[in-house]
Every structure is written in C-alpha cells, then in structure tokens.
Design goal:
By secondary structure, the chain is α+β, with helices and mostly antiparallel strands. It is 22% helix and 35% strand. It folds into two domains: 3-106, 434 Repressor (Amino-terminal Domain) (Orthogonal Bundle); 125-326, Immunoglobulin-like (Sandwich), CATH 2.60.40. It has a six-stranded mixed sheet with strand order 4-7-2-1-9-12, with no helix packed on it. The protein has a four-stranded antiparallel sheet with strand order 8-13-10-11, with no helix packed on it. It comes from Allokutzneria multivorans.
Length: 327
C-alpha cells in the first residue's frame, strides 16, 4: 500500500495549518523530514511523554506499543501497515500537526531489498504473537529493533523431544545463515514456550559459535538471546549455528510445536520425537498465514516405529508452521 490509498482527513479540530506553526525547528522538520526526525521533534515540542501519546491514541481506538513509537521516532522502523498509517494520521491530531504532514514524509512503502520482487513480505511481530508488545519490550531492552537485518536464513531444522510425562524436554535448532554485508558476527534468536506458567529455560547450549547476551520476560515467557559466530562473515559468506534449549521440569502437557517465521526460508524441517511410552493417538502437520488465521494446510502424519514425525517445507513462506497431536 502507498500513501495514495490513505484518505486525507480535512478540517480536524485539533490540527493546525502549516501557517499556524511558529516553531522554526518543528516547521523545518515537517518540511524536510525525515519522518523520524519530524515525529521526534513534534513529540518533544508537544510536551507529552510517550506514555501520554500512546494513551491518547488508545482513546481514539488505536493501540500502538511504546516500543513501536520509540522505534518510529528513532528511525529504527517505520509505519507501513494500514493500521500503522492510521496511527500516524491520529498522531497528527494528537500532536496538533497539519493534516498529512507526517504521512507525506513517509512516501511510498519501502521495497525490501533482501527479497526479490514478488516474494512474500516479512511478517510483523503482531502477526506472529497476539501479545507482541511484550516481545517488543524485550527487544527494546536488547536494542534489537533492526532484528537480524543483515542475516538471511537459508535452511532451518527444529527438533523437539517430548518426554514420557508428555511435556517438552528439549529442542535443538540448526540453521544455515548467509551474511548480507561485510562484518556480520551474530544472530538474535527468539524463543517462547507454550506454557506461560513454566519457568523460562535457563540452559542454552550453542554449537559452532558462542552464547552472547540473554534477555527474557517472566510474565510473557519470551526468551531472546544472541548467538555469536565463531568468526566474522563477509557479504555472501555462510555459517552454521546450532543451539539446544533444555526445558525445566513441571511444564504443561505439550500439544504442538511450531516455528513462527517472519521471513521466507529456502527449507524448513520440523521433527518431533516422542518417548516410546507416550505416543499420541493422532498427529497433524499444519501451516497458517499468521497467528490469527485458521490452518490453510493440515495433513495427518503417520507415526513410525522410531516415534518420530516430521514436516518439511521447501520455499517456506512467512507464517506459522508446526506439528500438533492428540493424546
């Protein structure tokens, strides 16, 4: 979507015309941009704390996280979705700015250079987790707003082990990654268990690299951590990383395992290993366009003598891809 698709709002009572703005700094920012600078100056000149800006947007029916507002005014991300553009329109009202003064600074939607034209667009966090603001809060602490911007995942393999007590015991993830610029030395991983009452895993073992900084949020269960490569990569070079997460005991009975993919992946393999003393009655593979949509693909899988099932996705598109089962 481009800004041509946004219907201008004319004559809003809380806005000012450009002629009514007598602040030289604000006037210059609105005329020349960029969007992040204009928004930052407008918020500062309004005298409103970011929490107050968020609250006033909420009273107008639009919810935007503090992390998102912070990213916008620092240039670490920009509004592009229809809901986000509506929020910018209301920001002009909240900050008493001329109609479309911020919207015009956005220009057309940015192309994603990592993907060729016609490839699926990356998913935003709100499409993958209903309580995405909790994750964004952790990422704000981790200073990872431009998450893995210069790393492309080529292949991903997730292996889950389900114990005799029917709970998740551990997961091993292997990835082949490619650097998209010189000097890339790490990747950031996001993990979240299915049981919000279970203690966040504290045992993370990294192969072919080193565990870096770790951040978590006990209330939401999000776990974010860095994997430092064993050497710095130049553009086009690939590396393999592997990490294992061991789950604390006492979790809820597991019913599914999935990967929530923001970006396309050439190949994604998910394997689930069941303890021979706790084999489910039926097992299914599924895919969803995002966390809010129903399954668009659902097939029953046959469990072999090994107690392992797998789901393979070639040219895997962004979305939720997993395996579920019935005990």
């Amino acid at each position: 979507m481009t800004l041509d698709a946004v219907t201008p709002v004319v004559g809003r009572a809380d806005t000012r015309s450009i002629a009514e703005i007598d602040d030289p700094e604000l006037l210059a920012a609105l005329r020349t941009g960029p969007f992040s600078e204009a928004l930052r100056v407008a918020i500062r000149r309004s005298g409103l704390a970011l929490e107050r800006v968020q609250s006033r947007l909420l009273t107008r029916g639009v919810r935007v996280s503090l992390a998102t507002l912070s990213y916008w005014q620092r240039g670490r991300s920009r509004p592009e979705r229809i809901e986000s553009l509506k929020a910018v329109e209301l920001l002009e009202e909240v900050l008493r700015l001329p109609p479309n003064s911020l919207l015009n600074l956005l220009g057309p939607r940015r192309p994603r250079g990592r993907w060729q034209a016609g490839a699926p667009r990356p998913l935003t966090f709100d499409r993958l987790w209903p309580d995405h603001w909790a994750l964004e809060s952790v990422l704000e602490e981790a200073a990872s707003g431009r998450l893995n911007e210069h790393v492309t995942g080529l292949t991903i393999r997730d292996q889950y082990w389900i114990g005799a007590d029917r709970t998740e015991r551990r997961v091993v993830t292997s990835q082949v990654l490619r650097a998209e610029r010189d000097g890339v030395d790490r990747v950031v991983a996001i993990f979240r268990g299915d049981d919000p009452d279970q203690q966040i895993p504290s045992v993370i073992t990294v192969q072919y690299g080193e565990l870096g900084r770790v951040w978590s949020d006990d209330d939401s269960g999000f776990l974010v951590f860095e994997i430092l490569f064993d050497r710095m990569l130049d553009r086009g070079e690939t590396t393999v990383v592997e990490y294992e997460i061991v789950f604390p005991e006492g979790g809820a009975v597991a019913l599914s395992s999935d990967r929530r993919a923001r970006y396309p992946v050439r190949e994604y393999l998910l394997q689930v290993h069941f303890d021979p003393t706790a084999v489910p009655r039926r097992v299914f593979e599924f895919s969803r366009h995002n966390a809010q949509t129903p399954d668009h693909m659902r097939n029953e899988l046959l469990l072999g003598r090994s107690g392992m099932v797998h789901s393979l996705h070639s040219e895997c598109v962004p979305g939720v891809h997993g395996i579920s089962w019935e005990w």
